[in-house]
Write a structure and sequence with these properties.
Structural class: mainly alpha
Shape: extended
Helix content: 40-55%
Oligomer: single chain
Radius of gyration: 19 Å
Mean pLDDT: 77
Low-confidence stretches: none
Length: about 120
């Protein structure tokens, strides 16, 4: 997690137009306070990378417990919060369907809550 934060801060500093006018520590504070937003380029993994990850998970004695969850996430398009909010009644095996009408969220008050999905389509 720390490396990702450092990556975001460095990207924001080097890509911002104010990098010659503000110290990195000051920029970091503004980003962390939410006064400046940074959007990083996002790259999806390739099909080959997906297969390699699933193979690793399946064969590793420690990480094999995550194989089913990661497989479902890759093959359904569910958000992690939607997946975490699934209950047995959401699984419609006879119709080969997963009903997504809620998600599990962690609040700033350190509580889990059930909320509607981000989009109407689930």
């Amino acid at each position: 997690m720390g490396n990702r934060i450092a990556e975001i801060l460095w990207y924001g500093y080097t890509e911002s137009r104010i990098c010659d006018k503000i110290r990195p520590a000051s920029l970091a504070l503004l980003i962390l306070k939410g006064e400046i937003s940074i959007s990083l380029p996002v790259a999806a993994i390739t099909r080959k990378q997906e297969c390699e990850l699933l193979k690793f998970l399946k064969e590793d004695k420690h990480f094999c417990r995550y194989y089913d969850a990661i497989y479902i996430l890759f093959n359904t398009g569910l958000r992690i919060s939607e997946f975490c909010g699934l209950t047995f009644s959401d699984l419609e095996f006879d119709q080969k369907r997963i009903k997504v009408d809620h998600q599990l969220q962690w609040t700033s008050q350190m509580q889990y809550v059930i909320q509607e999905p981000k989009t109407e389509s689930g």
